[in-house]
Amino acid sequence: MLGALVRPEGASGPELDVRVHPPARVRLGTYQRSYIARLGKCLAGQFPALCHALGPELFDDFAREYLRAHPSTSHSLYALGRRFPAWLEAQRPDRDAAAAQREAWIDFMVDLADYEWRLFELFDGPGPEREREREPTADCPDAELALQPHLVLAEHRFPVAWYYHEVRAGRRPSVPRREPSASVLLRRDYATSTFPVTALHLRFLTCVRERGSVNAGLVGLAEVLGRPLAEIEAAWAAQREGVRRPWIEAGFFTRARPRTRR
């Protein structure tokens, strides 16, 4: 029964004749169609902006093919769309072409699916709500600032965050032009937010995450850019009211845990 529901195209022939009484086959067909349709609606709920971009009918076609390739294997539908962005990338007809020769609208679909899944996963995943005591204030020294571990750093080839929020606001945006975008995805008080940042900001925040603190991140950024550390530190000091305070108030940072001596 499970096999017939999950892979209906394989539920035919002599085995079906033996296992399913003929009058029940009509009901089995109904269950097969409704099962895939309900999973498709669940997938559309996880990727609402992509559904808008493709249109419901084309999105349903993609959803059916994806569910045939990756049927649900869990009692929970939470992870249903986990492999959807990678599946879209793998199925693109121009996947063997050079990057400059690939279809831009497919790049947009893949990027949009990636952004939506990251946001969905962040919303239902662990968050910082139970660690209020570690929230820093604006006067917290840089040496004590570490990147909030549940924060997501995202980089895409299109302004997919803008497109997603336009769709969620009830508007009907057109597919945007290719334009690299960087954003920070953050959950706070059980609500997700997206913050646009520059490519340089994203590189700095990546260094902070990799090195464990803002001070170490400044050293890492100086190494990546090949610039003197004093120059990088001066630029960051000039941002104390530019981005530092808003980032702290938004929840980008937490107080770094003290290192234990061995």
Notes on the structure:
With 262 residues, this protein is mainly alpha-helical. The chain has 2 domains: 33-69 and 80-125, no CATH class; 135-261, Outer Surface Protein A, domain 3. 53% of the residues lie in helices and 10% in strands. The chain has helices spanning 2-6, 14-19, 22-46, 48-54, 56-69, 84-91, 104-124, 160-168, 199-211, 214-225, 229-237, 240-250, and strands at residues 145-147, 152-156, 181-188, 191-197, 253-255. The chain is globular.
The class by helix and strand makeup works out as mainly alpha
Low-confidence stretches: none
Largest sheet, strands/sense/barrel: 3 strands, antiparallel
Radius of gyration: 23 Å
Separation of the first and last Cα atoms: 57 Å
What percent of the residues sit in helical stretches (DSSP H or I)? 40-55%
CATH architecture of the largest domain: Alpha-Beta Complex
Fraction of residues in β-strands: 5-15%
Using the coordinates shown, work out and report the CATH topology of the largest domain. Outer Surface Protein A, domain 3
Under CATH at level 1, the class of the largest domain stands as: Alpha Beta
Instruction: For the largest sheet, list the strands in their spatial order.
Output: 2-3-4
Overall 3D geometry? globular
Number of strands: 5
Question: How many individual helices?
Answer: 12
Rounded average pLDDT: 86
Number of domains: 2
Order of helices and strands: HHHHHHHEEHEEHHHHE
